[in-house]
Amino acid sequence: MGVLKMHDKLRTHVEELFYSAPKTRKVNELKEEILANLIDRYNDFIDAGKSEIEAFNNAISGIGDVEELISTLNENNVFDYEKMEKERHKFAFMISISVALYVISVTFVILFDTLGLNTNIAACIMLLIDAFATGLIIYSMMTRPKYVKKDDTMVEDFKEWKHQTSDKEIMIKSIKSIYWPIVISLYLLLSFVFGLWAYSWIIFIIGIAILNIIKLIFELKEN
Amino acid sequence: MSITSDMIRGHTDTIILSHLIESDSYGYEINKAIQKKSNNEYELKEATLYSAFRRLEQGLLIRSYWGDETTGARRRYYSITTLGKAALENNKHEWDKAKDLIEKLINGGIKNA
Prior knowledge:
The structure holds 2 protein chains of 2 kinds.
Chain A: H1 3-17, H2 25-47, H3 52-61, H4 67-75, H5 81-114, H6 119-143, H7 154-194, H8 202-222
Helix pairs in contact in A: 1-2, 2-3, 5-6, 6-7, 7-8
Chain B: H1 2-9, H2 12-20, E1 25-26, H3 27-37, H4 46-58, E2 62-66, E3 76-80, H5 82-107
Antiparallel strand pairs in B: 1-3, 2-3
């Protein structure tokens, strides 16, 4: 048997040892390191006059138990696909509920109007439901788990960075899209129901201030 | 023999560091040196050796870099860090103390009394 063929045999053996290990950069490097040392070991046995079979067997018997080694490599791997998938379902569920609530809230106004009841009360109920739905969306956004690096490669760094940036942008966008309709509703409510036309416009200035405070909280949280 | 192995295993990290303070080295070479120094009485299992490397590297006691072998597989070399040198000094000191103490406790301490 040729030397290269023997190297291939050793390589196959190392691959088999790490069959159950995750395919990360760290594991690949460890496999390469083990193989290099194994080849050296094998060559030394050959130089000492052993047969190819003997040298191969002696070389691989020196590796020992790699189970513990694999488990220590797994410890750094905090990325859990199953958990991620569960969280994603939970998140989608919360968003769906919130959107359903928005739609339902409008039907109250229509219903009260058709029945000839006080539409002001309907508007109040609508705002309350909307506020609850908004709270639900923000809560699920805040508690959504972050993307955790699987391995210390450039690609993972990039994924983590991209996830963080886009996450923040989506979050602020969705807050804005919910926030301004609520401010306008409040403005109309205060103006029509309580007749506060003279002062109610102030709500827009306060609205801008509050939005900026929300943005600031995000910035601070990041640092 | 098994008691001796257990006792030595507790000092694997120190043994590796004391080899690396002489020169940078890679797994097989370190194991060969251990075998030679112990007159073929002791040899580490490679899995034990790699576990120790990971542990030491995570603790910043050693650093690793790849060799530029063109045939076969690349070797991963290790070198000791300043922190590793300090740890080695500390471990040597601890070992001397433990050695004296065990000597006193087991052999009655006639020499040092």
